[in-house]
Amino acid sequence: xxxxxxxxxxxxxxxxxxxxGCDMGPSAFRAAGLLETLRELGHAVVDRGNIERPPLRPLRxxxxxxxxxxxxxxxxxxxxxxxxxxxxxxxxxxxGGDHSLAAGTLSGLSRSAAExxxxxxxxxxxxxxxxxxxxxxxxxxxHGVPMAYAVxxxxxxxxxxxxxxxxxxxxICMMGIRSVDPAERKALAETGVLVHDMRAIxxxxxxxxxxxxxxxxxxxxGLLHVSLDVDFLDPDIAPGVGTTVPGGATFREAHLVMEMxxxxxxxxxxxxxxxxxxxxxxxxxxxxxxxxxASLMGRRVxxxxxxxx
Length: 309
Description:
The protein is α/β, with parallel strands linked by helices. The protein has helices at 25-31, 34-40, 69-87, 102-115, 146-150, 182-191, 198-204, 206-219, 251-264, 284-296; strands spanning 5-11, 44-50, 91-96, 120-125, 172-177, 194-197, 223-229, 267-273. It has a single domain, classed as Ureohydrolase domain (Arginase, Chain A, 3-Layer(aba) Sandwich), CATH 3.40.800.10.
């Protein structure tokens, strides 16, 4: 990957989850040294601060379980516009915030890619597929719907913003999946999204699975967006998340993914999501996420600083 102009967009979104604290995520990433790390790696950094949520509109849906619908829709609109603009100027890096923010980033980036005449591919690093719709969610927490929205699943019409360019499910790769609801299992089968769950990673290793997907992106001259959720990682190494699921990626598996992404030179945008500093241990998860972003942006194994924990 060549030197980039990294455009940091803080997304203090917490309304998509049932816990408070994700709104502090952008500040935690900055406090953990993300800006300084990117600059040390030779990248230009433009920090645009935190995006402001637009005024709310009264919105309702027939599913009474849904929480914070006006808030999540407002964030989706704001983030779609911000990432669309940033994609025309450099490499957007969105600092979250819960994963509902991806409804905005994915829709803005897909619009930008379509206008450039290129295909947007997505590497979704998460314990969950987030393929619920407003009709199927039982928890009502809208951090479980962004991928369903981005690929144009039914149920969002008249509530969420219309999509300028829905994602092609065939260009999505999900890795680290290990918590899937029945409705999401059905949606995965219907959409045909490529899923490498933790058993596949155990059996085949991340390198062989990721290599195949990266070859597809390269062959299509595609743009690659990476959405990295803290719960992709095993909670033993990354406790700072509200949706811990045992059995996630190890420290070295996660770094290998990032190092391979850097070597590919294909990544054009990045989400860092679901960091909840309130759940963290003295910034441990924030520092790990910054460390992973550094590997994606060019830090090699031999360059890693020695740390005492």
